[in-house]
Amino acid sequence: MRLKFFNGFLVAVLLLPPFFVSLQAEEEEGQVEVQRVRFSNAQPAGSGRTWREIEVQLNVRGPADRNVINPRYVDNIDVELNLSFEVSRGEVETTRFYRSAVAIPTLERGRHTVHFYLPPEVVSRDRISGDPQAYLVNLSVDGVQQNLSSSALSRILERESVRESFQGRVESEAGVNDGILLPIHLTPFVNDRQYLREMPSVRRQGER
Q: Structure pTM?
């Protein structure tokens, strides 16, 4: 069914040799990269309701300009998460697209984690339990797009033309679901002690 997602184009992609579908490595390292994306179920303390948790681990390398006030920090980091889930009811199949973003004022060099959540009603309605059909994490620093690491996207999006098709559908179809995929500070998990140490501060106007 995944092949239908890109109207047959993905069939041809999957038949190509592996070196055609890999991301092209860029010589210049970005200031921030995605180290890992992990999907799991989570319940806020005492609620008994299951949310779908998306954990995005970032590796902050350092600022491009070393002549800053504190070269241990990278400022103005935007993290955008895009997801698609295939939903079926009997003979009816559809794909739902979600997106969310946070703007982080500054992060110190090292690893940091950003969490996003799909609420329990959506998880139950669409029977979401496994990984999404596709995901893509876009990072930017001071408005400059960072290089995509292999961990920032699902394998079916490794080829640029397929990735562009996915992003086009996110732009055209995710709007109806804006505000459903939530960053952690807009969920009950914001008060959970296990997240407090790794939760970065965010600019409130940065979320969708």
A: 0.84
